[in-house]
Amino acid sequence: MASITRRKVKGHTYYYAVASQRIHGKPRLTLQKCLGSAEKIIAAVDQQRTPLEPREIDTFSFGGVAAAWAMAERLRLLEILERHLPKRHQGISPAQYLLLAAINRCTSPRSKRAFAHWYAGTSLVRLCPVPVKLLSSQRFWDHMQRVNEDTIARIEADLVQHMLTEFHLDLYCLAYDATNFFTFIDTFNEASDLAQRGKSKEHRADLRIIGVALLVSLDFHVPLFHHTYPGNQHDSKTLASVIHSLVEHYRWFQKHCRDITLIFDKGNNSTQNLTEVEASPYHFVGSLPYDDYPELLKIPRKKFQALDHSRLTGVEVLRTKKSVFGVERTILVTYNPHLYLSQTQTVLRQIHKRTIKLQALQLSLRRRREGTVRGGKKPTRESVTQQVRQILCGQHMKKLIRAEVGDDHGHPTLSYRLDHAALHRLLREVFGKTILFTDQEEWTDADIILAYRGQSQAEDAFRTMKNPHFISVRPMYHWTDAMIRVHVFYCVLALTIASLLRRELHRKGIEISIRRLLQLLNDIREVALIWPRQPGRPSGAGQKRDTFKLSRMSAEQTQIFDALGLSRFAP
Predict the structure, then answer these.
(1) CATH code for residues 149-336+432-466
(2) Phi and psi torsions of 57, nearest 5°
(3) What are phi and psi of 168, to 5 degrees?
(4) Pairing between strand 283-288 and 261-263?
(5) Phi-psi region of 220 (alpha: psi -120 to 50; beta: other; left: phi over 0)
(6) How far apart (Å, rounded) are the C-alpha atoms in residues 538 and 367?
(7) pLDDT digits (tens, 9 = 90+) for 317-372
(8) How crowded is residue 17: how many other Cβ atoms within 10 Å of its Cβ?
(9) Average pLDDT, whole number, for the chain?
(10) Where are the domains of the chain?
């Protein structure tokens, strides 16, 4: 049993813990530990009774950046980027800048001015150590000058070929679509040919827009090709400009799938495009506009056949053949009751909104004509006609609401009525119907319809890229074509990472949206407890070491954390 003894050393009293034991019949000391002076023993006891509080507590965003970093490693993204963007000078390489930018857009989009601050608040400072001062916006864009359009195409080609080998994506059907994104480039800035005035799909007619085309898998909309183009370019012209690139990609795709069908919507239709697609190795499924084939819409529903498929409940179809752009194609006219109800509700709501506006305008004109209102600018027949045109600018509105602007002794008048016959014709012949065409003559009706519905995967990809919280392309603060292309490129890389993360979780039985996934991951924090240094003791000599832990996770977070194997990145 140990005991405490007192000893004097050079006139000072010290206390020791000692223990002895008989060894071979003789007493021997087996423990002798100096406890210090009485004052130090009292201080140590007081400190033991008083809990030691950390000097600082710091937190870092862990889950989102760790998951993105893990997927980037599996994609060999840094290796591929450095193959085409080798490092030349001191500091970090353009490849590292691009990788960090893609992770930033994926998890927490920031401007390049806020880029360094974001990085310093994440676990990337440990996973990918970089001097924060090198992440200024000026340094970033200085390096991005080396990333031109040809380099982007070569990087994407290598990445896609590796991705197909690593992830075995389903290439049976691929969806192609195009959209546009608004920018804040000044109207009189002539440095960009990509940013143009056009029909903004985000209804920002006051801003210049740029266009982006995507080819994605139906397997969780993983991007396989992208193209940035002027925002005022029509979708059909865009497809014509990229069809040769799509054929080039087919050479890589056919190593993994030999029969590939391209899905696109009616906005891409043209004689030239269909001729090019026909000459390419792709099969295709597309749609046709209602107005070009009214005779198909007039076929009574009693000639349609109901489909016996679990994913097409209530859908009816009429199959026929018809010449499309000079070539006979298989045509499907489909009727979907859910689409019918949705379109009906939408048009009735729009009619209601338009008639309220017309009624207000009619009342205003009447009060002006009766002299109740005298001030302000006097309306003219031309100005009222223009107002009516703006009110009825929605789809079908001009056909359904008949408005007439007249004149009563120099005062404009307005009369309007709902065309019940036109509404009845729309409900009977158009709503709920879609006209599809394809060169896949051997496919069943269900195969064709389900393939075309895969077009929604491309739309989902664009919807994700327009989310302001994750993988956001907008707003775009760049004003040169080169920088715009780089910005779109690392946004597409971010979409690739997020889509593959979601796909991996699906394969492990976890169904979750990209938005929900990144929200849950970003809420997993790395917590650092910085303990105070005890005076008089050298580093490591009894000093309490700084502690790094992960924040408490919910059951759903834990499931995702384990499924993605993020424990290997934990502190």
Answers:
(1) 3.90.350.10
(2) -125, 125
(3) 55, 55
(4) parallel
(5) left
(6) 90
(7) 999 999 988 899 999 999 999 999 999 999 999 999 999 999 999 999 999 888 88
(8) 13
(9) 87
(10) 1-49, 149-336+432-466, 340-430
